[in-house]
């Protein structure tokens, strides 16, 4: 098996990590389906609430989902000891860790915990759907970091490698937003976005930049969903290492690279 890059930082300003399994078309969510999924998840995710907002469905060919009496826009399962949550919506299932403002909070439990929670939820969903299970078409992963910064003009030079610099912006007084998306090989899509934002941290509301890195792929006959997500995760690790500067690696305390 090829070696896999695993990055470990002791001071990474991570605020969110999420993995997603998307369907080509929506599956109407009945109360009985949502409760059936919860029956298989409640030991790890004891709390169940209705979704307050629709999840993004990366790359999916959207079809109008069915809402109305007897159907739900989605469900969120929470209460995990590591602060994870899982969301089930008509066209996507998401496992997510989000940093919560507060002095005491669970640390990011790493990719493996996210991945295992996603597949556990997908299996519960497949079981509840029976013969009407739509099947996974796309897998995706994203990280969001928040970079507190006093000097908006220096964010690119301070935190990003030369490959991420745009020479046309070299005299920018203030960087407001920078975003790029492209495809690699036959199936992998990669995206990063840097934009000004405010974050509620333990020390209060802080101004800075939100950095999103994401990758995803549409599955083909030769690649199953689990193998596809591993490929996406590996690609994001390598991309992030090339994206950030030496100053960022030092400030965020990148440990010795571990190839497993």
């Amino acid at each position: 098996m090829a070696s896999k890059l695993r990055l470990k930082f002791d001071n990474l300003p991570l605020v969110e990590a999420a993995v997603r399994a998307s369907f080509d078309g929506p599956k109407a969510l009945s109360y009985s389906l949502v409760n059936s999924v919860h029956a298989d998840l409640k030991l790890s995710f004891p709390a169940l609430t209705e979704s307050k907002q629709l999840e993004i469905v990366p790359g999916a060919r959207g079809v109008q989902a069915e809402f109305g009496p007897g159907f739900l826009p989605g469900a969120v399962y929470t209460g995990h000891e590591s602060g994870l949550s899982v969301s089930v919506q008509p066209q996507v299932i998401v496992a997510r860790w989000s940093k919560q403002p507060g002095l005491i909070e669970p640390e990011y439990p790493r990719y493996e915990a996210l991945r295992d929670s996603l597949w556990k939820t997908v299996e519960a969903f497949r079981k509840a759907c029976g013969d009407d299970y739509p099947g996974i078409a796309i897998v995706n992963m994203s990280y969001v970091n928040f970079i507190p910064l006093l000097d908006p003009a220096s964010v690119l030079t301070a935190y990003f490698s030369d490959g991420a610099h745009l020479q046309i912006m070299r005299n920018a007084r203030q960087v407001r937003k920078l975003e790029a998306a492209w495809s690699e090989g036959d199936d992998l899509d990669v995206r990063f976005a840097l934009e000004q934002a405010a974050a509620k941290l333990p020390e209060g509301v802080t101004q800075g930049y939100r950095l999103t890195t994401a990758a995803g792929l549409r599955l083909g006959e030769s690649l199953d969903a689990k193998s596809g997500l591993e490929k996406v995760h590996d690609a994001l690790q390598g991309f992030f290492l090339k994206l950030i500067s030496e100053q960022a690696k030092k400030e965020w305390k990148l440990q010795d690279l571990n190839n497993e």
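The mean pLDDT is 87. Helices lie at 31-41, 111-129, 155-159, 225-243, 246-251.
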